[in-house]
């Protein structure tokens, strides 16, 4: 199909009729501006779960109940040898384009990008997304949830919008800001298409909002065009931190994991062997570095860590329930038999990586472990609520990654890259509940979908000549007689923050590099595994087969140069990868919103905030806010006073002006000065240029945005301070807010000790 049959790029077709001087002499011909889907083409739903291990859900032997995942697996096919990239944005880039991560410029995140082809964070138009391809084939296309592939410099209302979801083939988008990788589950920042939506969610969890929107998209489309297929990309924020869900879901798991993570691993491995999801000879790996045996934990540690797991389990079950609502709706309208559902239970492994103890409330950095535990015990009922930002301890991440080692972020280990895959398509899949063991990678999903849908990849899309798909269709594995055919995806590299590996014909060479320093540099070398015989890579054969190591190392080298993997980098530096660049002075206006990734990084050094406004004796409200209940800053007016709130390390410090704000035109300013290399901070307030109060904040961390962003004239979501209720919108006339980055005063530096 050429580009002339495109829903996005529709040049006027050649007139096929005949023009006469009169209507009687004219032969009409309606222009065919829209493509028509292949006869019987299925609806397509891709579901991508975030940050979850191979051994979490009951669908793959885990102990967290996922009846809707189980249903899809029992009526479809389980793929036991499916792989993703080790982080979310790279996986999503490969998934949506059918290419390798570095090949589409997402070797890491756009927010931490640097200017080399494999890492600049701009998806090439020459490598179309599945939405662009399917829309060219007569599909409606919808994206709900997490996108994470728009560069922060494009993610403001200045655009450009061609790399937002609606610019890359989706008719509609509803989800988190398109450049962000996570969001608060109770107070989400949400966009519809290219505009932020301010909605009263009435206390609904974001998973429920996402499911509602997905159902609405399908209902609206099928009401108007019942014979036209749809493509839904459903990617909730679950199970990414913050782990947040209602108490009713958490309490379902009370006491269910009391045996601890060691017993969890043993039980899950037995389940996986019994279900045929791992080879019968699979053994548990040793505990990951830094993880203690369960029986060596204190009673308080066990109490806190169990609650973490109960929250995570409730969160996953609730996610499964909301996905079930979508599936049930498709069944209700009679479309399920002709719907291809691709369920990917993980965009990488479970998240651990240098968080041995987990976290859910902010605590003083000088607290001892016992003091932190005491605070956590005291606040345990908050875990999962809007007042927490929960990420569990490494031990549970390790356990739910059973039977693999390590976590999300490790490109060389299966624990970071090996995830469950389920294909469901009643019209085509006859081997209900079947298992497939062929190697596959996330870029295989697009060509699999295209083949099963009977679609074609145009040679030109939107005027851009298309480069080849790099994944391999899995359609060859679907028929029962083909369940044991040789794999067709025979070579695949992995790389993430300097750790890398290469898979080739059942062998895997792995080169660990750990930016968290859990793997010492002395262990950085090539390791070799026969993963057909050693499923979870416990037996290093490098010394035994040096020629095989050499062969695979050379294969990696060739793939790395071919797909833009070089230069390797292991840092995670968040530069000013946003629309503001290195600007030192930024003028903002009321109603402005910037998500946490598109906000200038003003909070890493001294800064001032100046609001120019007209006020009366009754004026109040927020002038500038950044962050939420867990961490952030707010400059606001209340009771004729100017107040600056600074929230970090579990402490809220408020500085109030010692003079009333006079009515009329005023300049209201807060100046935050860093000293002692940023460890100490002070705040000074000014009204019309005159000093009006100050406070030394002492030793305190930088207040950051949490999962919120920057608001001008209000504070949405959970507020930085309990001194007001959201949104506490400024009711005076706010002309502008000037954010200025300052140099830290050298005279305020303390002498080196």
List the topology elements.
Blueprint (H helix, E strand, L loop, with lengths): L42 E6 L18 H9 L1 E7 L4 H10 L32 H7 L3 E6 L26 E4 L14 E3 L2 E3 L8 H19 L5 E6 L11 H5 L9 H15 L23 H34 L6 E6 L24 H10 L15 H7 L13 H4 E7 L9 E3 L3 E2 L3 H9 L6 E2 L2 E2 L25 E6 L2 E6 L2 E5 L15 E4 L15 H17 L22 E4 L4 E2 L12 E9 L5 E7 L4 E7 L2 E8 L2 E6 L7 E12 L4 E8 L2 E10 L10 E3 L20 E9 L12
Parallel strand pairs: 1-7, 1-8, 2-10, 2-11, 3-4, 3-7
Antiparallel strand pairs: 2-9, 4-5, 5-6, 8-9, 12-13, 14-15, 15-16, 16-17, 18-29, 19-28, 20-25, 20-29, 21-22, 21-28, 22-23, 23-24, 25-26, 26-27
Helix pairs in contact: 4-7, 6-9, 7-8
Descriptive terms for the model:
alpha+beta, 753 residues, 19% helix, 12 helices, single chain, globular, six-stranded antiparallel sheet, disordered N terminus
Short description:
With 753 residues, the protein is α+β, with helices and mostly antiparallel strands.
Protein described:
This protein is of the alpha+beta class. It is built from twelve helices and 29 strands. Strands 1, 2, 3, 4, 5, 6, 7, 8, 9, 10 and 11 form an eleven-stranded mixed sheet that branches. A six-stranded antiparallel sheet has the order 18-29-20-25-26-27, with no helix packed on it. Strands 19-28-21-22-23-24 form a six-stranded antiparallel sheet, with no helix packed on it. β21 and β22 (632-638) form a beta hairpin. It is globular and about 80 Å long. Mean pLDDT is 93; it is low at 1-7 and 747-753.
- Helical fraction equals 10-25%
Q: Report the strand count.
A: 29
Low-confidence stretches: 1-7, 747-753
Mean pLDDT: 93
**Percentage of residues in strands:** 15-25%
Tell me the span between the first and last alpha carbons.
71 Å
Largest sheet: 11 strands, mixed
């Amino acid at each position: 199909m050429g580009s002339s049959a495109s829903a996005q790029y529709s040049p006027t077709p050649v007139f096929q009729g005949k023009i006469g001087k009169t209507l009687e002499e004219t032969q009409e011909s309606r222009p065919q501006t829209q493509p028509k889907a292949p006869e019987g083409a299925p609806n397509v739903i891709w579901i991508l779960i975030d940050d979850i291990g191979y051994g979490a859900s009951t669908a793959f032997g885990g102990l967290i109940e996922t009846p809707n995942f189980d249903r899809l697996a029992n009526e479809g096919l389980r793929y036991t040898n499916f792989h993703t990239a080790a982080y979310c944005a790279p996986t999503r880039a490969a998934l949506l384009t059918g290419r390798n991560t570095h090949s589409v410029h997402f070797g890491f995140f756009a927010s931490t990008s640097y200017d080399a082809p494999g890492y600049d964070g701009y998806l090439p138009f020459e490598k179309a997304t599945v939405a662009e391809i399917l829309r060219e084939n007569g599909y409606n296309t919808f994206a709900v949830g997490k996108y994470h592939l728009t560069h922060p410099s494009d993610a403001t209302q200045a655009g450009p919008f061609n790399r937002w979801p609606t610019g890359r083939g989706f008719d509609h988008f509803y989800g988190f800001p398109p450049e962000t990788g996570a969001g608060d589950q109770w107070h989400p920042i949400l966009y519809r298409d290219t505009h932020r939506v301010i909605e009263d969610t009435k206390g609904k969890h974001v998973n429920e909002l996402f499911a509602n929107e997905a159902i609405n998209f399908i209902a609206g489309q099928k009401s108007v065009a019942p014979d036209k297929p749809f493509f839904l990309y459903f990617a909730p924020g679950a199970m990414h931190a913050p782990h947040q869900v209602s108490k009713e879901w958490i309490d379902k798991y009370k006491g269910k994991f009391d045996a601890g993570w060691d017993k969890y691993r043993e039980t899950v491995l037995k389940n996986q062997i019994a279900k045929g999801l791992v080879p019968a000879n699979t053994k548990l790996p040793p505990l990951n570095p830094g993880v203690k045996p369960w029986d060596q934990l204190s009673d308080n540690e066990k109490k806190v860590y169990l609650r973490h797991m109960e929250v995570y389990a409730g969160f996953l079950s609730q996610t499964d329930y909301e996905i079930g609502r979508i599936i049930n709706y498709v069944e209700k309208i009679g479309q399920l038999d002709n719907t291809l559902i691709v369920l990917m239970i993980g965009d990488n492994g479970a998240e651990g990586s240098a968080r041995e103890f987990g976290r859910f409330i902010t605590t003083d950095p000088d607290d001892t472990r016992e003091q932190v535990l005491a605070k956590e015990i005291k606040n345990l009922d908050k875990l999962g609520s809007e007042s927490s930002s929960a990420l569990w301890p490494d031990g549970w991440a390790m356990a739910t990654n059973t039977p693999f080692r390590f976590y999300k972020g490790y490109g060389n280990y299966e624990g970071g890259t090996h995830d469950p895959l389920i294909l469901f398509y009643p019209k085509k899949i006859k081997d209900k509940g079947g298992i497939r063991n062929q190697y596959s990678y996330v870029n295989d999903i697009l060509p699999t979908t295209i083949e099963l849908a009977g679609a074609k990849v145009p040679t030109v899309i939107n005027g851009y000549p298309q480069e080849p798909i790099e994944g391999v269709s899995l359609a060859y594995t679907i028929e029962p007689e083909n369940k044991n055919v040789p794999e067709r995806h025979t070579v695949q590299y992995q790389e993430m923050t300097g750790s890398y590996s290469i898979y080739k014909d059942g062998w895997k060479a792995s080169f660990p590099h750990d930016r968290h320093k859990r793997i010492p540099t002395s262990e950085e070398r090539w390791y070799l595994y026969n993963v057909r015989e050693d499923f979870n890579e416990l037996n290093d054969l490098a010394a035994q087969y040096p020629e095989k190591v050499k062969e695979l190392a050379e294969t990696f080298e060739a793939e790395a140069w071919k797909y833009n993997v070089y230069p390797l980098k292991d840092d995670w530096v968040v530069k000013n990868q946003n629309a503001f660049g290195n600007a030192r002075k930024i003028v903002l206006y009321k109603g402005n919103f910037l998500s946490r990734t598109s906000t200038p990084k003003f909070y890493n050094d001294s800064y001032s905030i100046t609001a120019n406004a007209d006020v009366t004796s009754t004026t109040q409200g927020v002038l500038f806010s950044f962050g939420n209940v867990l961490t952030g800053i707010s400059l606001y007016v209340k009771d004729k006073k100017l107040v600056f709130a600074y929230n970090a390390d579990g402490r809220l410090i408020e500085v109030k002006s010692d003079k009333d704000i006079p009515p009329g035109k005023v300049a209201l300013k807060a100046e935050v000065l860093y000293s002692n290399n940023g460890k100490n901070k002070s705040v000074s307030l000014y009204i019309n240029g005159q000093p009006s109060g100050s406070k030394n904040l002492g030793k305190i961390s930088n207040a950051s945005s949490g999962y919120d962003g920057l608001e001008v004239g209000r504070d949405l979501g959970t507020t930085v301070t309990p001194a007001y209720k959201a949104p506490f919108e400024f009711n005076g006339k706010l002309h502008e807010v000037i954010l200025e980055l300052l140099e830290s005063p050298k005279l305020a530096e303390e002498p080196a000790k």
